[in-house]
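Hi V.,

Quick status before I head out on leave. The structure for the redesign project is tokenized and pasted below; the design run finished overnight.
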């Protein structure tokens, strides 16, 4: 029986994913032994992410690899990982190790009292030397204000790249979640509220990793806004 499944979506992450996998494997093996798994979902990778993951896999039997030749989007990769997961509890984390393993375990622990637990970077501590660039902070504040007003989601940080789920809670909303890109998290939370699932926020320490980031604000911002309209239309 697998207790916990950790999903790591990966798009061209050969330069960043090894430390993440090694830290998570070391930390969660110490806690869960062989009753957990890490699933890396390769999402249209064109670099050597596979080679890096397989080199870690050689000494981490709990590590699994799924590969999709065509890009599925971050949300799509997470959904594929959840569909393949065997655990009673699920979590997903970014490949850049923005949220470290002990912080993710705090989210998983909070599932004792909630169906979904989301990391809250703004209630936690930024371990980075300079944090996010000012323009990204301003865009982030504007988008958070829009999400609160337009989708009526009362959470501080819908877009944190670390969240945990009870497996049965996820499966109850999975058929309604349609967004496969960066708005996946919003779609999840809107449907969780519609379904009456309990959602908790836990402050997490984090570190912004700019190098290798796949988020391009000029493109992601408009796509994100458009997705909020799609989500609201489906909610109606």
């Amino acid at each position: 029986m697998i207790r916990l499944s950790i999903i790591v979506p990966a798009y061209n992450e050969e330069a960043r994913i090894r430390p993440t996998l090694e830290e998570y494997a070391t930390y969660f093996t110490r806690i869960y032994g062989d009753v957990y798994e890490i699933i890396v979902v390769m999402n249209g990778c064109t670099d050597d992410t596979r080679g890096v993951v397989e080199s870690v896999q050689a000494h981490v039997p709990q590590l699994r690899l799924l590969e999709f030749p065509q890009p599925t989007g971050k949300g799509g990769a997470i959904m594929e990982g959840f569909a393949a997961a065997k655990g009673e509890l699920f979590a997903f984390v970014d490949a850049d190790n923005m949220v470290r393993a002990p912080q993710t375990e705090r989210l998983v622990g909070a599932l004792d009292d909630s169906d979904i637990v989301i990391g809250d970077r703004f209630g936690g501590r930024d371990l980075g030397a300079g944090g996010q660039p000012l323009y990204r902070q301003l865009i982030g504040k504007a988008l958070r204000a829009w999400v609160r007003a337009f989708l009526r989601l009362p959470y501080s940080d819908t877009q944190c790249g670390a969240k945990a789920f009870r497996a049965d809670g996820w499966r109850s909303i999975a058929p309604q979640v349609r967004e496969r890109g960066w708005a996946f998290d919003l779609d999840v939370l809107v449907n969780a509220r519609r379904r009456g699932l309990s959602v908790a926020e836990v402050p997490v320490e984090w570190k912004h990793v700019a190098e290798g980031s796949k988020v391009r604000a000029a493109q992601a911002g408009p796509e994100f806004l458009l997705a909020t309209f799609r989500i609201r239309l489906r909610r109606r």
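Above is the designed sequence. Residues 217-235 form the longest helix (19 residues).

G. will cover questions while I'm gone.

Best,
W.
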